[in-house]
């Protein structure tokens, strides 16, 4: 999209939250199982055109295993961010993360958009979108430690830093669902599916044609 079109859309949006659909933010501590549960529901919603899964942009090479995302070098990410390429962006673990601005279009037409986000961006999300569901995935601390060590994506020092990262915000509010993923992925995954089906039922696709 042309930069001028992006700026025009942003100016139109200021003070007016993006309506109709629902932004489903999947949050929780590292190792809780956000990507695992997103993959679980994604496999079961392939026929549902109303649910989209945001493809994140991260300044990390994709390992192809835990999450399929786009990669940008740090300077390119900063340029993209400045040109309005992201609906939302944040920094964590020494990395930059962005959610493409195109999710606004999906939500405007009444779709449900699912994205793994930082707990720290929930206030910004609630300001940007009229309908936000916050799906907070949890697991016991010892479970997180075991899973991150077994995943093997980070060094031992990085794993310890991730475990030490505490939730910066109180996430409670409308549309907040807490899902414990200390058991099997199926148990938590079915609860997550139920939240998504409620979000689809809630999204407003009437009057959009
Ligand atoms: N219910 C579960 N039972 C057993 N292992 C699980 C379960 N859920 C996730 N895992 C495993 O735990 C590890 C962490 O899961 P995942 O990468 O989905 O977490 P995450 O919350 O996305 O973490 P991060 O924020 O670090 O990306 C993975 O190796 C995954 O296979
Ligand atoms: O701790 P907070 O800010 O909630 O989450 C920060 C980030 O940590 C994880 O990153 P990754 O997917 O493991 O790289 C999450 O996906 C989120 O984007």
From TrEMBL:
<keyword id="KW-0808">Transferase</keyword>
<comment type="similarity">
    <text>Belongs to the ribose 1,5-bisphosphokinase family.</text>
</comment>
<dbReference type="GO" id="GO:0033863">
    <property type="term" value="F:ribose 1,5-bisphosphate phosphokinase activity"/>
</dbReference>
<comment type="function">
    <text>Catalyzes the phosphorylation of ribose 1,5-bisphosphate to 5-phospho-D-ribosyl alpha-1-diphosphate (PRPP).</text>
</comment>
<keyword id="KW-0067">ATP-binding</keyword>
<feature type="binding site">
    <location>
        <begin position="28"/>
        <end position="35"/>
    </location>
    <ligand>
        <name>ATP</name>
    </ligand>
</feature>
<dbReference type="InterPro" id="IPR012699">
    <property type="entry name" value="PhnN"/>
</dbReference>
<keyword id="KW-0547">Nucleotide-binding</keyword>
<protein>
    <recommendedName>
        <fullName>Ribose 1,5-bisphosphate phosphokinase PhnN</fullName>
        <ecNumber>2.7.4.23</ecNumber>
    </recommendedName>
</protein>
<dbReference type="InterPro" id="IPR027417">
    <property type="entry name" value="P-loop_NTPase"/>
</dbReference>
<comment type="pathway">
    <text>Metabolic intermediate biosynthesis; 5-phospho-alpha-D-ribose 1-diphosphate biosynthesis; 5-phospho-alpha-D-ribose 1-diphosphate from D-ribose 5-phosphate (route II): step 3/3.</text>
</comment>
